[in-house]
Amino acid sequence: MPDAADPAPMNARRKFRREGEGRRRQDLIEATLDSVAEYGLQGASLRTIALRAGVTAGLIRHYFPSKEELLQEAYMALVGRMTEQAKAALVMDDASPRQRLAAFVTANLNAPIIDARVFSLWATFIGRASADPALARAHRDGYLGFRNEVEAVVAEVLAAERHQPDASELRHHAIAINAIIDGLWIEGCLAGEMFSPGELAAIGIKAVEAELGLVPLKHDAEK
């Protein structure tokens, strides 16, 4: 176990890179996520984070005036990374909107988005959001950002089906699909060993297509 006077062991420290301010801020955010994952929000003090990053607490304050601001940025980075990883699945040459939707759902229900450490961090931050307005705002922004991505994909799919939904219908579908993905994501993070490879993604795609009223493709119906 680490010495109580030095909660971040030397071999756990990140190498702090002498690069631009954006890179330095990112290094500090990563050190914060590492510290929260190991010690929780209370244990992840500025000193602990500084030791993890291999810098001084004073340098952290140069980039982040308070621990609260640093935690907010770390949570936004965590959620934003998950959204970007899911969006990357949408970059598919010659794919139909429906195939892009399936790829998006599949990406959300597989590694690296399904990950016990990611879930633990997310749950830790969420547990504090009700008492921390800054974290609550970060959570709201992250949720709405992901929901906007879902709305965009759904609009493409329904347009290909010759249906032009209004804003209210798109919002309804996006909320439902977000709930489907979130529920399966939590199951996969908490008990991934209970599911066969691809099982959660297949369930997710089927549920999302049912939500959108899509007729099963012929090869799906034959399975």
Description:
This protein is 70% helix and 0% strand. It is mainly alpha-helical and 223 residues long. α1 crosses α4 (67-88). The termini are far apart.
Features:
mainly alpha, 223 residues, disordered N terminus, single chain
Number of strands: 0
Average residue pLDDT:
90
Radius of gyration: 20 Å
> How would you sum up the global shape?
elongated
Distance between the termini: 52 Å
How is the main sheet built? none
- Series of secondary-structure elements, N-terminal to C-terminal: HHHHHHHHHH
Beta-strand percent range: under 5%
Measured as a percent range, the helix fraction is 55-70%
What structural category arises from helix and sheet content? mainly alpha
Discrete helix count: 10
Q: Low-confidence parts lasting 5 or more residues at pLDDT below 50?
A: 1-11
